[in-house]
Batch of 3 targets.
Target 1
Amino acid sequence: MLTVAVTGDVGAGKSHLVNIWASLGAGVIDADSAAKSQWSKPEVLERAVGRWGDGILRDGTADFREISRRAFSDEEEYRFMNSLIHPGTVADICRAAASLRGLVVLEIPLLFESGAFDWADYIVYVSAPDAQRILRNAARGWGAEEIARRECFMARRDEKMAKSNAVLANDGDIDRWEAASRELGMKLMAMATVHEFSVCCATREDAQRLAALLVENRLAACVNIWAVESRYLWKGGIHDEPEWHMSCKATARSLRPAMECVRANHPYELPAITAVELSRSDPATLEWIVDCCGA
């Protein structure tokens, strides 16, 4: 599993990007809904009313327009709002992500401001020129002043970009941007399903020969080999033998042909190949494996 957080400029196209990746097969968690659901929790609403008064309520429930007006009035109120909803939002998102596999994508506008970005394996920042963001936010009733009022409490754009793994600039050429979004999405899908498979050989020479076949044919990005002592059941008997263990890193696409290659070239009647899907691995390492083996 690879957890990808999508953040970026107000009105830059974050939701559009998430929708593109959902169409590719990514699992999507609605972080905005998770944040809004915090306001239905009695303890959150009670604290908010205690600070802002019952003017933030409409028919006994949260009035989001009024809450936004209060929260974005100054930095202290903004920090207070974050302290109310961010802990519960992050906890709910983590619970939802734990039930998914493969590529898991969340759109989180205030990712860095929440201080909770350390749980994300990969961060994508969506940027766009100010003029285009103003046009896109017109449907919300937000003009340049409202966008500036909200963003003045957020971390600087250049700092957030520097902390992100990738930046997608939505600068007006929608076809080019969508193509770049799909290309990155396909790579992330492959990174989310990288596998490590293992097999043992009787001799070091056999292990080295198989490793060369796998790497040279781009079926594995690398093969680690080391000596082991094995005890195993085989045809009714217990055997103790020195062996050479091979640990091989491959993509989901290359895994099946890699195992077929091992079976076809291994001296054992049963090579005993096992595989596991990697999770929470270094993104740069996952990207290297994908580049070596292909998405």
Target 2
Amino acid sequence: MAEEPKIAEELHKMQYQPLMPVEKSLIKWSLSIGVISLIFFYWLSVTFFPGAH
């Protein structure tokens, strides 16, 4: 039975590929939406459920 390749070895063999501009944009949008959602839901919980804090 052949030995399975190790993930670390395969990652070292891969070439570096920089992110495309559209990928950078998607990452920025995702992080922004996540942070804004956290702030909004925290405000929502403090405003409508004050006894829980």
Target 3
Amino acid sequence: MQNPLSVAIRTATVAAIFGGLSACATVKPEQLAAIEAKASSAMSEARSAASAAKAAMDAANAAAAAAANAQSSADAALSCCSENKDRIERMFELTMKK
């Protein structure tokens, strides 16, 4: 047999817990609308950031392609310069032999 005071305390505790939980479970329409607005704003900002990141990636890829093209042109110019230098040196050597 349980003490009547113990039973009353347990019942009051259980009632308080259920009362607290039911109070936390109610959400007002204004609160829900505010949460939806924040979520919508966050989604919009995320899409904007993704778009900016894609544009930055496209610009970086274009810059990399331009740099590769410039490197190729510089390598070709260096090769041509080297060939001209060798040709002039051979001509000079031939002139000195005569």
